[in-house]
Design brief:
Chain lengths: 364, 301
């Protein structure tokens, strides 16, 4: 049984297609992050799961029960919003128990739930206050509390941290992570912040233009992006994508770039399809953090590139190198001194390489 | 030597700027007092005239102070002289107006709030068109709807009654009240409605429990606006009602114009003030919120 299952879901606003044939599954207790640039349809998808938006095609199942036409309140979900959406005229206590009261829960049960949750979230001192008298972090906690008291099957979070300042955001991120570890409730979480996605999710679904590009664990998303969009979207700075060709030379596979005599051997690469690799036009993808200034592993490949630019950002520096007129970025500790305008010896960690078809932009 | 010279010239400059500021300040007050008296002057004339006897009015000037606190003309304006036919006085019409204004303001405000709520929080296909046509209603001149409205009231059987006037003013007020509430609710985050829906609240519960409690500023604005409009209306009142059912503005007109013998300026003035007092009271009580409500849409709380 899947806690949440979405089948062939499509949604359009007028002639604009927002979601195209989405398929998605979440197991009990998992933390799924919907990640993507603004306008990719992730919030719409969340609203559809909540029942706040109608569906054009496809179905949503919660615990194998088709809820596509079920009212939000009957879906056994709770949602935390970006603007917190606390009812301004009610105090914290009334805010938290509003849903239970609507569901005609008994007074004793409401009181018990309220005490439990407010203690758990440390808002039990704030129960009589109005939302306007709370700080950003407190409001966030009350909003989570309002979701918690209903003991839902699924928690939905719609960019809950993006209204907080940078420091508080990191704190609240950890609190949400702790919360999930303790409660083990299934979560669907929407964000455009990759750090949030990476640190919180057990699964990340990356979306673009209404299509799920990749749905995987954070490790796989980072190490084995399934197309150039994912490769480019995750990581800061993003993955270097060097355009070139594959060449077969007496059984060995080499990556070459026109206008350069550099050849990078492709060994032990886990190809999806080994046929037709010779002369294939590809993107050679390597992350800036997988380019070293000295040899760390036996398999590291030595290459000489000209250093063009250095960006100092405190604990590290981002260097730009020239690879046959294509930019290659590398991340080094800021203590390393590299002369600009000179050829520099670099080491590519070839175990961390991704290759993409230049036409389809899919991983090969 | 040079230092002392410098400091003395600074002292001179300081002195000079002090005089300039003082002059400007006095000038400012002068202008303000001038404008204020320009506006308060008619009221002054009305009040002193209403307190004079006819004898005084004939002999004195417009501005002269009354000889005493002579409230007789007020009593006449409010309650009449006590003889039978032809004696027009304001009391019954004042209550007519109250009976017209209170329900008309209530219904138009309530319907406007509902419509504004639907147009912003329960969007539907073509809702912009509905809003556009409603806005259009704000610009229809009063005169244009007189005939159709008279016919409608006739068909409904409520012409020449307070109920009929309540209907007219409610209908005519809806475009304005909708505009007010729609512009207010558009700045209220829609996520509030979403949260309430997940919490299990329905259409009316969300309106009464979530939106209405935070609508005080715009309710005050709407009530003041509608109260003033309806209380001061003469055209609808004079067209759709006559005799006993007339509102106070119509009665005031009849009273002032129908004096057969001598023009009783003191009674006329007292009547005019009585007819204007309710709107004044509403402004004094709620004026503070009026300004706040007008700007509250712009500055998000």
């Amino acid at each position: 049984m899947k806690t949440l299952k979405i089948e062939e879901l499509s949604k359009n606003f007028g002639s604009t297609e927002v979601l195209k044939k989405i398929n998605l599954e979440i197991d009990e207790g998992n933390f799924l992050v919907l990640l993507g640039p603004s306008g990719c349809g992730k919030s719409t998808l969340l609203n559809i799961i909540a029942g706040l938006e109608t569906i054009n095609e496809g179905d949503v199942f919660i615990d194998d029960y088709n809820v596509s036409k079920v009212e939000p309140k009957d879906r056994n979900i709770a949602m935390v919003f970006q603007s917190y959406a606390l009812y301004p005229s009610m105090n914290v206590k009334e805010n938290m128990i509003f849903g239970l009261k609507q569901a005609k829960t008994s007074k004793e049960k409401i009181q018990k739930q309220l005490e439990k949750v407010s203690k758990f979230l440390q808002v039990d001192q704030l129960l009589e206050r109005k939302p306007s008298q709370l700080s950003g972090g407190q409001r966030q906690r009350v909003a989570i509390g309002r979701a918690l008291v209903r003991e839902p099957r699924i928690f939905l979070f719609d960019e809950p941290l993006s209204n907080l300042d940078a420091k508080l955001r990191v704190e609240m991120r950890r609190e949400i992570k702790k919360l999930h570890q303790q409660l083990k409730t299934t979560v669907v979480y929407v964000t455009h912040d990759q750090t949030e996605a990476m640190s919180l999710g057990t699964n990340i679904a990356i979306m673009n233009h209404g299509v799920i590009q990749q749905n995987d664990t954070p490790e796989k998303i980072y190490n084995k992006p399934s197309n150039t969009f994912v490769a480019d979207f995750i990581g800061s700075p993003s993955m270097n994508l060097i355009k070139g060709n594959l060449k077969e030379n007496s059984g060995d596979l080499l990556f070459t770039v026109s206008g350069s005599n550099l050849e990078i051997p492709i060994k032990d690469y886990d190809f999806k399809d080994k046929s037709n690799l010779n002369n294939k036009e590809v993107f050679f993808g390597i992350r800036p953090e997988h380019i070293f200034f000295k040899k760390f592993n036996e398999s590291d490949f030595e290459i000489n590139l000209r250093a063009d630019l250095s960006e100092y950002i405190g604990h590290e520096q981002i260097m730009t190198f020239d690879y046959a007129n294509q930019e290659v970025l590398a991340k080094f500790p800021s203590t390393i001194k590299i002369d600009l305008g000179k050829e520099t010896k670099l080491y590519f960690d070839l175990t961390q390489v991704s290759l993409f078809d230049a036409q389809t932009e899919e991983r090969i | 030597m040079q230092d002392s010279l410098k400091s003395s010239s600074y002292q001179q400059l300081e002195q000079k700027s002090k005089y300039t500021n003082m002059f400007l300040r006095w000038f400012l007050y002068f202008i303000l007092i001038l404008f204020a008296s320009y506006f308060i002057f008619p009221l002054y004339v009305m009040v002193v005239t209403s307190l004079k006897t006819m004898e005084e009015i004939r002999q004195g000037t417009l501005l002269s102070w009354p000889s005493g606190l002579n409230l007789e003309s007020w009593a006449v304006a409010w309650g009449g002289r006590g003889y039978g036919a032809g004696d027009t006085f304001l009391r019954p019409y004042f209550w007519n107006s109250i009976k017209m204004v209170v329900p008309a303001v209530f219904f138009s405000t309530f319907i406007g709030a509902m419509t504004g709520y639907v147009l912003t929080k329960w969007r539907f296909k073509g809702d912009q068109w509905v809003f556009l046509f409603l806005l259009f209603g704000c610009f229809i001149p009063f005169q244009a709807i007189l005939l159709p409205m008279a016919r409608t009231l006739g068909v409904l059987g409520i012409s020449n009654s307070v109920v009929g006037l309540v209907l007219v003013h409610t209908v005519y007020g809806i475009p304005f009240t909708t505009l007010f509430f729609r512009n207010y609710y558009i700045s209220v985050p829609t996520e509030l409605v979403k949260a309430a829906r997940i919490d299990g609240a329905g259409f009316f519960k969300i309106f009464f429990k979530i939106l209405l409690p935070i609508s005080a500023p715009i309710i005050v604005v709407t009530v003041i606006w509608q109260f003033t409009q309806i209380w001061n209306d003469f055209l609808f009142g004079s067209t759709f009602s006559f005799g006993e059912a007339a509102p106070i503005q119509v009665a005031l007109n009849n009273m002032v114009l129908s004096s057969t013998s001598v023009k009783e300026y003191n009674v006329d003035m007292a009547s005019a003030i009585i007819a204007g007092i309710p709107t004044l009271i509403v402004y004094v009580l709620a004026g503070k919120y009026f300004i706040r409500g007008l700007t509250s849409g712009a500055v998000k709380g």
